[in-house]
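TICKET: design request
STATUS: open
ATTACHED STRUCTURE:
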C-alpha cells in the first residue's frame, strides 16, 4: 500500500522533496545510448538492424512494414476495437480542429504590417511504444493531431515482436488512419533513424511519442537537430479529493495507473484521514483481483503515497507543486477547484471522469508531460506540429518613419551596418 505523508501544519516551503516520484535518470541513459545513436548516424539502416537484433531479438530485412501486413492487420481487427478506435479518433479530431490557429494580420502603423502565420512542419516521426503492453491508442494520439495540423509526411515506428512486425493492433490503427509508412523499429534506434534518416526513411523535422528511458535519452541527444515533444517518463496520477469522493472509484484509478508500469507514481492528496482508510479497504480488494497484481503492488509500494493536508487549498498547493501528468479533482466543488489548478498535464473533474477515459476516448490527448514538467510544458496537440512564422511587410513611407529609431538603437549597439541597411533605402537619391 502507499506510504502516508502527513503535511498538516507544514505549509511553508517546497513540498516536492517530500513527495515520491520515480526517478528517470536520462543523463545516465544518454551515455548508454550515445554510441548507438552515433552508429545509426554513420551506418544507417545496418546499424538499426544490428541494434534491433541485439535489443529485440529480431533480425530485420526491410525496416518498413509491407503494405499487405498493414491491410491484413486492419482486416483481422476485432470489430469492437475498430469501432472504439474510430470513435477515439473522431473525438480527438474535433478537439484538435478547435486547436488550429488562423493567420493573424496586425497593422502596426499605416503601411506596416506583421502577419503571424501557423505553418505545419514538413515531416514527423511518431513513436508508439511496445514493451509490457501494446498501445494502438497511442497511434491515434500521435497521428490525429499531426494530420489535423496538415503535416504532409507522417511515419510511425514501433518495436517488432518475434515475427518481425509491430503488434497487429498498432498496425491496424495505422492502417485505419491512413498511415502507410510504418517501421518495425523501437527504442533509441527508432529515434536515431527518424532524426538522421536511413535508406528508405528520410529524416524528419519533429519526433513525438512516449517511450522508456532510452527513448527519452535518444530524444535528448537529437533535440536541436529535430524538434521533440518531451522526454516522457513513467506515468503518474495525482488525485485531490475530499469526503465526497467515492473510495472505490479512487482505488480503481490508483490501480489503473499502477498497472502501466512498476515505476508508475500515484499520489492521493486529501484533508480526510477517513477517506484514506476507506480507500485502503478498497485497494486491498481491488489489488488482489487485478490481473497485473505484481506490477500494481510494486508501483503502489515504490513511489506512491497518501498525503494528508490541512484543507483543500493546502492540497491544491501540493498538487500544483507535484505537477502531475494526470490530475483528478474529486471534491464537492470540483469544477471550480479544477479551474484553479496551474500545473498538470490534464485535469479530470469529478467522480465520473476517470483518467482512463482520457487514455482512450475523452477527446483529449494522452501524450502528456511527466516528472513535474507540467510546470512548464503541455501535452501533445495540433500546435505541436505547427510553427509560428512572422510575415513582415513595410512600405517605403513606413520604413522612412521608423528609420531614426533604427539608427538610434543600431548606434547604441555599435552595429553600423544595421543602420546603413535601412538608410540606404530611405536616403534621397
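STATUS: resolved
RESOLUTION: sequence designed for all positions
ATTACHED SEQUENCE:
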Amino acid at each position: 500500500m502507499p506510504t502516508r505523508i502527513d503535511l498538516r501544519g507544514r505549509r511553508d516551503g517546497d513540498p516536492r522533496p517530500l513527495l515520491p516520484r520515480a526517478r528517470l535518470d536520462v543523463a545516465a541513459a544518454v551515455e548508454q545510448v550515445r554510441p548507438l545513436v552515433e552508429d545509426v548516424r554513420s551506418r544507417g539502416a545496418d546499424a538499426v538492424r544490428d541494434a534491433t537484433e541485439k535489443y529485440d531479438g529480431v533480425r530485420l530485412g526491410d525496416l518498413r512494414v509491407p503494405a499487405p501486413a498493414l491491410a491484413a492487420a486492419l482486416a483481422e481487427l476485432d470489430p469492437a476495437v475498430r469501432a472504439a478506435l474510430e470513435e477515439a479518433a473522431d473525438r480527438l479530431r474535433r478537439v484538435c480542429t478547435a486547436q488550429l490557429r488562423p493567420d493573424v494580420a496586425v497593422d502596426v502603423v499605416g503601411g506596416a504590417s506583421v502577419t503571424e502565420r501557423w505553418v505545419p512542419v514538413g515531416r514527423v516521426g511518431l513513436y508508439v511504444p511496445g514493451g509490457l503492453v501494446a498501445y494502438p491508442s497511442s497511434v491515434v494520439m500521435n497521428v490525429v493531431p499531426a494530420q489535423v495540423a496538415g503535416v504532409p509526411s507522417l511515419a510511425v515506428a514501433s518495436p517488432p515482436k518475434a515475427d518481425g512486425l509491430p503488434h497487429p493492433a498498432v498496425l491496424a490503427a495505422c492502417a485505419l488512419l491512413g498511415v502507410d509508412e510504418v517501421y518495425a523499429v523501437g527504442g533509441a534506434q527508432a529515434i536515431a533513424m527518424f532524426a538522421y534518416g536511413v535508406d528508405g526513411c528520410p529524416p524528419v523535422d519533429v519526433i513525438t511519442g512516449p517511450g522508456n528511458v532510452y527513448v527519452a535519452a535518444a530524444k535528448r541527444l537529437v533535440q536541436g537537430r529535430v524538434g521533440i515533444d518531451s522526454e516522457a517518463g513513467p506515468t503518474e496520477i495525482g488525485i485531490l479529493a475530499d469526503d465526497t469522493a467515492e473510495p472505490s472509484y479512487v482505488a480503481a484509478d490508483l490501480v489503473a495507473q499502477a498497472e502501466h508500469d512498476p515505476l508508475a507514481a500515484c499520489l492521493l492528496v486529501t484533508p480526510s484521514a477517513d477517506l484514506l482508510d476507506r480507500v485502503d479497504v478498497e485497494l486491498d480488494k481491488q489489488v488482489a483481483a487485478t490481473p497485473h497484481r505484481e506490477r500494481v503492488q510494486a508501483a503502489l509500494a515504490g513511489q506512491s503515497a497518501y498525503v494528508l493536508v490541512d484543507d483543500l487549498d493546502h492540497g491544491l498547493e501540493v498538487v500544483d507543486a507535484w505537477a502531475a501528468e494526470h490530475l483528478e479533482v474529486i471534491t464537492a466543488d470540483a469544477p471550480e477547484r479544477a479551474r484553479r489548478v496551474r500545473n498538470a498535464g490534464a485535469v479530470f473533474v469529478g467522480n465520473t471522469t476517470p483518467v482512463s477515459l482520457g487514455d482512450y476516448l475523452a477527446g483529449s490527448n494522452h501524450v502528456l508531460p511527466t516528472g513535474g514538467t507540467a510546470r512548464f510544458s503541455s501535452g501533445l496537440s495540433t500546435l505541436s506540429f505547427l510553427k509560428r512564422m512572422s510575415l513582415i511587410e513595410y512600405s517605403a513611407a513606413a520604413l522612412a518613419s521608423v528609420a531614426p529609431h533604427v539608427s538610434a538603437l543600431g548606434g547604441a549597439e555599435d552595429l553600423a551596418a544595421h543602420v546603413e541597411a535601412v538608410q540606404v533605402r530611405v536616403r534621397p537619391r
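CLOSING REMARK: The chain is about 45% helix and 15% strand. The first helix runs from residue 26 to 43.
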